[in-house]
């Protein structure tokens, strides 16, 4: 608000992702984390992230660590996929990702 004028702020990606935070907090599902590496065939990377965020219990992380539950990758022989497996991260392909989106849930095996 500037001297009685309302300024419309453009929404950035994080604003969009956090817009329904109160609604999402009410659902007490265990949260899974996922990372995407390489190109996807059926989705643009950002579209896949938004789709998973809005329709499942999974949240995007930018890199693979011991706290990452899933790595979405078209190839399973890459350096990042091998590193993910060493952490105990499950490496899945795009079809498995789509199945989890349709089910509305990424299974969480962490305690």
Describe the fold and architecture:
The chain has 5 helices and 4 strands. The protein has 111 residues and is α/β, with parallel strands linked by helices. Strands 2-1-3-4 form a 4-stranded parallel β-sheet, sandwiched between helices. The longest helix has 11 residues. The chain is globular, with a radius of gyration of 17 Å.
Features:
single chain, alpha/beta, four-stranded parallel beta sheet, globular
Write the layout of secondary structure elements.
Elements: H1 13-18, H2 21-26, E1 32-37, H3 45-55, E2 58-60, E3 70-73, H4 79-87, E4 90-92, H5 94-103
Parallel strand pairs: 1-2, 1-3, 3-4
Secondary-structure-derived class: alpha/beta
SSE string = HHEHEEHEH
Our Rg estimate from Cα atoms comes to: 17 Å
Count, helices: 5
The portion of residues assigned to helices is: 25-40%
Average of the residue pLDDT scores: 84
Number of strands: 4
Low-confidence stretches: none
Strand order of the largest sheet: 2-1-3-4
Overall outline: globular
Offer a concise description of the structure.
The protein has 111 residues and is an alpha/beta fold. Helix content is 38%, strand content 14%.
